[in-house]
């Protein structure tokens, strides 16, 4: 019989707790930052951002694309997703005052100029998606301070200069998209030591170097599945040590200046599925082991100097992977 009063008390208290959360105030820092962003954006966003509080105020819902969470007596902004709405102008620096952000998604807009170095303040950020904009200048080294980052999308912009070596300081990084920019120099060798990196795409840039530089250390790329180096200026051969990247499924080397024989060891990568060697300067023959590989669906070899009779595997197609495959 003693349990009945407790049950009644729980029923009475629960609405009060819910009301307390609903009525908690949004941190002034975040309110100020979002209103500064609101003032700098075009009408496509502003018309749906009603009220002064981005986390909602009374009967007003949270602003579209804004996700908030409660921390003690306050609410903070944890996610900002404003994409494909034709935002024009420089990267909104006020974003870097949202110190509790875990996701920032501004992709497919018309943002210009550099990413401000203050981006390094967002220590809790896990997903940074800025692809399909018109961002310029160098990729700031301060991104290397975002130790929680798992997904970094900077592709399809106008970034120049070298890939920051500081990206090798991101222990949680899983997906790194840098393709379709104007990046130069070499891939930082430290990237091979990232324990969780699954997808690395640096295609369609102006990068140089050799694959041997990237795989010379034992234990390189322990989790890498997809490796895109296509449409750059890489030289040298495919090192036999690449066979130690045992989780590799896609190797995309098309349109470089690579040469030499194809080592038979590569055919022993257990789950290798797509191997694109086309439009390089490879020569010799393709070892028979490739044609017996249980998972290899496509091997494209056009535009090389292989011996007569060497045949491709499968039908060549451009690999296009949907956004949703890499968000979680």
The gist of it:
The protein has 328 residues and is α/β, with parallel strands linked by helices. Helix content is 14%, strand content 23%.
Query: How far from one another are the termini?
Result: 48 Å
Task: Indicate the radius of gyration in whole angstroms.
Answer: 25 Å
Percent helix, as a range, is 10-25%
Which structural class is indicated by helix and strand composition? alpha/beta
Q: Strand content of the residues, in percent?
A: 15-25%
Outline the low-pLDDT stretches.
Answer: 1-22, 321-328
**Overall morphology:** elongated
Major beta sheet summary: 12 strands, mixed
Q: Give the SSE order as H and E letters.
A: HEHHEEEEEEEEEEEEEHEEEEEEHEE
* Helical stretch tally: 5
Tell me how many strands there are: 22
Summed over residues and divided by their number, the pLDDT gives a mean of: 90
Explain this structure to me?
- This protein is 14% helix and 23% strand.
- With 328 residues, the protein is α/β, with parallel strands linked by helices.
- The strands form four sheets. Strands 1, 2, 3, 5, 7, 9, 11, 13, 15, 17, 19 and 21 form a twelve-stranded mixed beta sheet that branches. A four-stranded parallel beta sheet has the order 10-12-14-16.
- It has five helices and 22 strands.
- The longest helix is centred in the first third of the chain and has 21 residues, at 3-23.
List keywords for this structure.
alpha/beta; 5 helices; 22 strands; elongated; disordered N terminus; disordered C terminus
